[in-house]
Amino acid sequence: MRAPAMLRWAAAALAAAALVAAAPAAAFYLPGVAPNDFQKKDQLLVKVNKLTSTKTQLPYSYYSLPFCKPNTIVDSAENLGEVLRGDRIENSPYVFEMREPKMCQIVCQAKINEKEAKELKEKIEDEYRVNMILDNLPLVVSITRQDRNAVVYQGGYHVGVKGQYAGSKDEKYFIHNHLTFLVKYHKDETTELSRIVGFEVKPYSVNHQFEGTWNDKNTRLTTCDPHANKLVTNSDTPQEAEAGKEIIFTYDVGFEESDIKWASRWDTYLLMTDDQIHWFSIVNSLMIVLFLSGMVAMIMLRTLYRDISRYNQLETEEEAQEETGWKLVHGDVFRPPTNSDLLCVYVGTGVQFFGMLLVTMIFAVLGFLSPSNRGGLMTAMLLTWVLMGLFAGYASSRLYKMFKGSEWKSITLRTAFLFPGIAFGIFFVLNALIWGEKSSGAVPFTTMFALVLLWFGISVPLVFVGSYLGFKQPAIEAPVKTNKIPRQIPEQAWYMNPAFTILIGGILPFGAVFIELFFILTSIWLHQFYYIFGFLFLVFIILIITCAEITIVLCYFQLCSEDYMWWWRSYLTSGSSAIYLFLYAGFYFFTKLQITKFVSGILYFGYMLLASYAFFVLTGTIGFCACFWFTRLIYSSVKID
To answer: What is the spatial distance between Cα 152 and Cα 273, in angstroms, rounded to a whole number?
Structure first.
């Protein structure tokens, strides 16, 4: 009855996850950030974040461009995740008063030199956006979509635009030097307190003129004068970003009461119009799961239950041969594979990955890692990865002891250093490239040191503790004895060729997740919020089931054709889905992204290679564990003479 029980468990898990997916954003403010209440005329401090571009993927500090600076620039405390994301949050000269609209406020006047003009033009050419934060809400630009009659929001405003004067063919660069801010607030009905629920901007490029001599913020502008009811509503006389030009930076700020409650203020940012695509993705994946579950159930019935009835009825010789194909290799099926040490290391690393994803996703579904908690997801993943070293060591040493290995310390060292070492090497090279571009996305030396400290100070000792505990356990006993002399493997049919079955095996796990993968890549590379962790958790469960089932099915066919070398093949069968992941990343690069810089292209493929390698380790381990359970189950259920 084990197979139906397993299927019932899978169905129950899917049903539970479906309930979670149905309300992906409901639990956002469970731990959340405490709301700030503001009285009328309270100071509102606007912070500036990095400049970002989807064309280069290289963030820069806000003050790397000749914008107005406050008297002293103060860095906001950033968590590990924010630093790794390239966030650089600093104070700004933009200071508002709650519910006090201001018009044509002068921030400063800046005369730009040749170098600064070149920087500005490069950033405008690469479509860089300026990101700001007010009360932990990112600044957005609202765009009305004609095709849907809906308003969508884009994070940050463009540094400037390229354009031509009427009657001229020369392309000029214009800087957005006038910002019209709109702060939306929700007012308490009983008190005068308000909470900020929206922060929008409309940028304009205006070649400001003024009367008389320049007198800092008291100068009277002729292009923007609230006394003469002359406000900036268009960019008809734009400000060129040329060397020697004097640029006057100004802003308006308006306040608008809103019905949106503080707890729902992120909903507009996270407005998803593609929910049906996610449900389509889930249904598509469930079809694959049901198909594979049917096959696994059939195999279970044939192997375990027909065995009993086989003795009670006559069968043709051909059928009997097919039935007993996998039984003929009972004396070799648990023979340790070649490179068994490496297999132990990869299984241990996969267990570490599985634990990290499971714990992180549970926290994300509960709302602890909402987008309002910037960098929270990255920090949580890193810390969980480090702590899961305990399970990595335990899993690799248990398997190693089963293979009759005795050097548990060497296997522990390899588990602690193989994957993190390769990942750190790739990360270090990519970071050097970012540093060469003078981008704020380069991880500082102190953070790099903190990462190494996490690795050597916490992860490695935990792997050792796990290994020690695992090696002290009694060895896992094989259900059947292994022969001294290996059995010869008969010639296999073309469709049982290892390379062919491995590549076929990776298609279904990838097929189960590729639609969700599109949204994940979009959130990473097109700087959009990813928040539908309910859907993601459901897809993750489907991925686990698909990897397990496709490996069991192909492993069974392999054993039936009297090929007992299943150890590595079971790992590579589901692990090969990583090849399709990397190929899809290449397809996404050429069809969805407009990356033109060579360094940005290397960054993209470097990070996607790292992600594909991690996906290989994860899916490979899931497949291996399922196949290991399956072979032990079927060989322990038959009587061997």
So the answer is: 10
Residue type, 335: R
Q: Which two tokens stand for residue 601?
A: 């292209």
The alpha-helical segments, DSSP class H, found in 367-475 are 376-387, 389-402, 408-436, 445-453, 460-472
In the predicted model, what is the mean pLDDT of residues 63-88?
88
Alpha carbon of 57 to those of 54, 346, 439, 570: distances in Å? 5, 32, 10, 37
Cα separation values, 634 from 140, 514, 557, Å: 59, 33, 13
CB atoms within 10 A of CB 129: 20
Kind and range of the H or E element at 529?
none
Average pLDDT in the 186-199 region?
A: 89
From first CA to last CA, the distance across the chain in angstroms is 25
Query: 3-state DSSP call for residue 246?
Result: strand
DSSP three-state, residue 279: helix
Rounded distance between C-alpha atoms, residue 223 and residue 178, angstroms: 11
Residue 128's closest CA among 186, 50, 187, 232?
50
Hey, what are 371's tokens?
């987008």
- Which residues fall within 8 angstroms of residue 77, CB to CB, at 6 or more apart? none
155/529 Cα distance (integer angstroms): 10
pLDDT band for position 351 (cuts 50, 70, 90) = very high
Q: What is the pLDDT of residues 401-433, one digit of tens each?
A: 999 888 889 999 999 999 999 999 999 999 999
- Between CA 481 and CA 506 the distance in angstroms is 32
Residue 232 contacts residue 171 (beta carbons within 8 Å): no
Q: How far is CA 233 from the centre of its chain?
A: 39
The rounded Cα 118 to chain-centroid distance in angstroms is 34
The span from the CA of 331 to the CA of 635, in Å, is: 10
pTM: 0.86
- Separation CA 330–CA 335 (nearest Å): 10
For residues 316 and 285, the model is more confident at 285
